[in-house]
Each structure stands twice: as structure tokens, then as C-alpha cells.
Amino acid sequence: MDAFPSPDTAPLISWLFFLLLHSEPAGGRSDGYCGRILRAQTQGTRRDGHHEFRLRMEGDPESYKPGNTYRVVLLATSPAYFRGFTLIALKEGREGTTDDDYTGHFQIIDEEDTQYMTNCPPAVTESTPRRRTRIQVLWTAPPSGSGCVILKASIVQKRIIYFQDEGSLTLRLCEKERVFGEATEAPPDQCCACGTAKYRLTFFGNWSEKVHPKDYPRRANHWSALIGGSHSRGYVLWEYGGYASEGVRQVAELGSPIKMEEEIRQKGDEVLTVIKTKAQWPAWQPLNLRAAPSAEFSVDRTRHLMSFLTMLGPSPDWNVGLSGEDLCTKECGWVQRLETELIPWDAGTDSGVTYESPNKPTLPQEKIRPLTSLDHPQSPFYDPEGGAITPVARVLVERIARKGEQCNVVPDTVDDIVADIGQEEKEEDDTPETCIYSGWSPWSACSSATCEKGRRMRQRMLKAQLDLSVPCPHTQDFQPCMGPGCSMEEPSTCMMSEWISWSACSVSCGMGMRSRERYVKQYPEDGSLCQLHTEETEKCVVNEECSPSSCVVTEWTEWDPCSVTCGVGIRRRERMVKMPPIDGSMCKTEVAEVEKCMMPECHTIPCMLSPWSDWSECSVTCGRGLRTRQRMLKSDPAECTEELEQSEKCMLPECPVDCMVSDWSEWSECNKSCGKGHTIRTRMVKLEPQFGGSACPEMIQRKKCKIRKCRTKTKSSLCCPTCVPTGCRMQPWSSWTDCTKPCGGGIQERFMMVKKRAKGSSSTGSCKDRKEIRACNVHLC
């Protein structure tokens, strides 16, 4: 027993299976290590509540497609967890006692979490026993004809093993029914098809704010230039579980295809065609406003795989694409049509978790892996339920022509054999991405004025060469021609294919254009060129009674010059509204488009400057002011546009604010009707003192007043406010009136009215109504 691994070093689940795996069953039967695992699983402890664990295949497919790779996830519902597990895939009805009972193959994503089980390579188990709530692996489906598959998982939590023959820890998948002409499972390593085939790849990006609203980058969203190629099995552009090359890294992080194209072309005969499309700014627009980008490529018996990638930007290092897609069928023919939805994958070179995360290189570099909905809570694709990520793009690969003798076992349903694919491929635009040209000029007149064959020419201008190390050819193009009145079609015995179906109309409402193509099946015996048309266009009308809210716009203008003379800038183009909606609403069709542009690399600025001086003192002694600094120019001023002076705001302690008061009011009436009294005047505080400013002055002033002497008949009857002349009857004093101001000094008044005057009395003249005033609310406001 000492030869076996100890519980301290072996994975936990292996130790729990230890006694079962290393002891013979009754009867002495020996069915191998993997068979013992199955027996251990079925003998594990069970109890109710096992639905807290779940085995899931991303997207929850009901069937598998032979040769396709799927993500398999083992989950524990909170607060449950597991320490160990085993995962196997069996042919339905098999017991796992022989190697042939296992089907498909697993691929490790994270070596810190998972590993292949020792002595039973078809099974996957934990790398180290620890608490975990989720693991994931990739599983590649078996070839066609393998029948249904059972994926089983067992869970170890402490010393309890959970296992089910049916339910949440078991998946049953059967092979997807095949549609004739579609790509199926990966054929044998050696392709048996004959001749060559030509395909058109069309990329449909549906990454938009409507479909993926979380943190969607509204301003800079785009797809980078698509780059790829048709190649042999000896070359791998990228693959899950592999490491990104420098070319893949530059596409994934920078959106630049230049290094990737260089790597592809360096493979020589391993590559047949380089696949390229332009970048798309913004990432999504309706197809009636912008056609989906497409590219054509060819395959043959040795170079029958197709791979490509394109970055969704902005992002840390996220891409979509296909890797090693085989277009050769096991019936020795060529796939007619392939349509696949794409989810993003991580290149393993940057550790950002959101679209606009700052650069954070992953050191050491990690393996390429698909993104999942459980990667990080801040991820725009995060789903706490672990659901499938909604695809961000779709790719359509259609066969458009075949050349040479074909040897497919099953007859092909499409007649697309042409005389020479190479003749057609001359029309492909192999312009390097770093060369920016103008449009082609009109064709010149024919060099022959007779019916002898001549040539005509057209030209285009090189606007910019973004990479001086990459040449920019093809500024001239030539075509055979004859003089006026001569027809190159008369001696033609060209055999043409049938016209393919009309393309979709270029508009979704109103009048637009559509096109269709055909191909040359056989050229004239005399070796002359075939001048029959291979493309037709015609007008088309969609929904003649268009919505009243639709509008008609002009064609796009030419792109404006780039906003910079070197480095990366932007350029813009516009179109005009020809006819607004008839219902008077606003036209919702985009009339402006902006995209990035790249000019030659910026060189060092040819001006020499001194260091900046220290900042000057602030222009004020208190409050807000400005300060400046300068630097000197040491070279020719004509070649330097750098600023020589800078200014910025500065803040000192607040300035003292003195008290501000209003003007004095008018003097009030004297408070006595006779004898000595006083009168007052007031003023108000308009601004309280702040930050140590001067205090407020007095708010009320008094001065003496004397109207006349009070008349008295006796020494004891001195004039006073309360003295009442003889024979004069007065009412009591009224209450004081409300103060004229709530603060800052106001006035109150009270009155004594004459009640009755004595007739014939000598004091009648002094029997008058009386009034008194006084100051009030003299406190500061």
C-alpha cells in the first residue's frame, strides 16, 4: 500500500475513491482504472438536495455538432461548494470498462483548477483539493456517426460523493441532424477533395447597444480590420488553449492587422489566400446604410482550412473569429455553406475586465480562452446565473465557384464549376492596409483605333503610405480593348454559368439597386478573353408605400482629409437629406460618419526648448488670480509651434470684506409737541463684514429738537407729554405701532387723541392730538 499516493498529495476525489479503485471486486474481475471510477461513482453516498450542483453546457444545446467544441461548466449554487470532482463522457449504453466506451475529448482551460486524471486520461478532475463553486473545461464532440453521448459528473464535498444517473449532474446529447451541403465534423487529416473552390466570407457584426447594453462604449465602438487566411494543417493562426503570437496580440490589443498579415505571408506555401476586410466604424449600422464587409478566398486539397480574427474595440484584448475551419468534406467535396455565430474570446495578453479598462499586460502571458458570463462581476457579459453570452457577430461562408475536375462521392447540388478561378481572383483588391488610395480614374481611350486588340488604362493616386516598409503598388491598371465599332464578343464562344440569385436591395424602403453575378465556365478556344458581362445591376423597389417617417438621402461625400498629418487621427464624411419625411418628423438616418485614419508615424518635433521656469507669484494678494511660467526657444521659430508661455489659476486666502451700509434716512418728526424732545434717523446694513473686514458703524442717530415752549398757568403745571391743559379731555395713549423694520433700526409711534374740548376755555388752542415716536429693532441684520 505504500506505493500508492497519500491523502496529503493526491487530489481529494482520487483519495476518496482510493479503496474502491485499488481493490478487486468480488469474483476477481479486473476492468481497468477508469471502470473502477465509474463503480466508485455509483457506490458514492447520496442524499436529497443534490440539485444544489449542476452540470451545464454553455448555450444549453439539445444536440451536438460533430467536431464542434463546447464549454462545459460544473456549478454549485450558493451557499454550496465542492472540493473535488470527476467529469467523463461516455457513449450511450456503455459502462466505461474499455477505452472505446469514451467519446469526444476534454481540453483543460485553467491548469490551476483542472487536470486529466492520472491512469484514466479520458476523465478530468481537480488539480488541488480546495473550496470552489465553479470549474470549466472544453469538450470537442466526436465524429459523425458516434451516436448519443452521456456526460457525467461526480462531486466530492467533505466525505460525501454526489452522483446521478439522471438529473442535474448528467447531460445527454445526440448528434445534430445533418443538412446536405453544410460543414459537418472535422474530416480526416488528409483532404480527399479535388480541384479548387472559391468562397465568399461575409462578416455581420451585431455588437450594439441594443443587444449588449451593459457599459456599451457609445463613442469609439468599432470592429478592427478582419485578417486571416486559407491554410494547411501545418499552420495555426490562433486556437483555444494556445498562446497568442505577436501578430494576434497586435490585432487583439491595438486593432492593427499589419504584423498578423506579415506573419501569414511568411508561411509561404502553407497559405493559399490572405483574407482581409476593412475596419468598421461604428461597430453596427443597418444593412441598408452599410453593406456587411466581405472577402473572397480559395482553398485546395492541401490548404483547406480557414481561420480569421477581428477585434471588437475598445476592449482589453477581445476578439471573435474562426480557427482552422475545415471546408473539405469527408465525401471528398467542398462545403457549400457555413454559417456560425461568434462569441468573444480573450487573447491572454491583457488583464482588463471592461471595454475601456486601462492597459494591464498579463504577465506571464495566458492561454487563449473563450470569455464566459461568469468571468468577473464588472465584465459587460457578466450573468450571475452563468447563462450563455449573446453572440456579438455572425459569419457566413458561401461557396461561389469551383475549378478543375471534382471527385466528390455524393453529387453536388450546385453547378458552380468555372473555367478559371484565377482569372476571377485578379479582380481581388490585394492593397495593403497601410496604403490609402484615391478612387480609380475613368478608363482612357483605347490605344487601337481599329479592330486590332489594344489596351486602355486607368490610374489612381497614392494619398498616404502609413508604413514606409510596406510598398504601395498598383497605381495603374490596364485592360484589353478594340477601336470604335468593333465587338470583342463576336468571335466569343464563352460558356457562362447560370446567373446566381439577385442580391438584397440596397435600401429597405423606396428605390435602390441590386446585383447578380455569373462565372465563365469555358473560355474561347482561340485563347481570347471572354467579354460577356459577369455582373448585372438593376433598380429595385422595396415597400413602395414607405412609412411617412422615412427620408431620402444623397450618396456619401468623399472622406475629408485626416485630422492629423502624422499618427492616428479621424476623418469625416457626410450626406444630405434630399427629401425629409412627409409627416414632418425629423430624419433619423445618419448623415455623418466618423472613422479613424492613420498617417505616417510622427517624427520628433524639430524644435529645441529650454525647461519651464518656476511659476510666477500670484497676480493678486488675496482671492483668485493667475500665475504664469515661460520657456525659451533655442531653435528656428518657423519650425516650432510649441507654446512658450503657460498660465493657470491660483488661489490665495479670501480678501477682507468691509461692512457696507445704506444712506441715512430722513430725520423723523420731533417726539414732543412742545418743549424739549428728540428726533432720530437710521440706516441699514447692506453687507456684513467678512474675513476680517471693518466692523459696521452706528445704525441710529439722535438729536435734540424743540418746537415751542409749553404754556403753563401755574408753577406746578410744567409742560410734559402727560400734561393735559385745563378744560381739555383726552383719550388714553394708543398702543405702539409695529416697528417699521425687522432689524437695522426702525421707528414706532403712539397717539393720544382729543376726546372733548371745553367751550370758551382759554386753553382751546393747546388742546390738540398728540404723537410720540421711539426707535426699535436697532440690532444688526
From TrEMBL:
It comes from the Eukaryota. GO terms for cellular component: extracellular matrix. The keyword Cell division does not apply. One of its GO terms (molecular function) is metal ion binding. PROSITE patterns: REELIN, SPONDIN, TSP1. Keywords: Cell adhesion, Disulfide bond, Extracellular matrix, Glycoprotein, Metal-binding, Repeat, Secreted, Signal. Pfam families: Reeler, Spond_N, TSP1_spondin, TSP_1. Residues 19-187 form the Reelin domain. InterPro entries: Reeler_dom, Reeler_sf, Spondin/Thrombospondin_T1, Spondin_N, Spondin_N_sf, TSP1_rpt, TSP1_rpt_sf, TSP1_spondin_dom. PANTHER family: SPONDIN, SPONDIN-1. This is Spondin-1. The gene is LOC114465207.
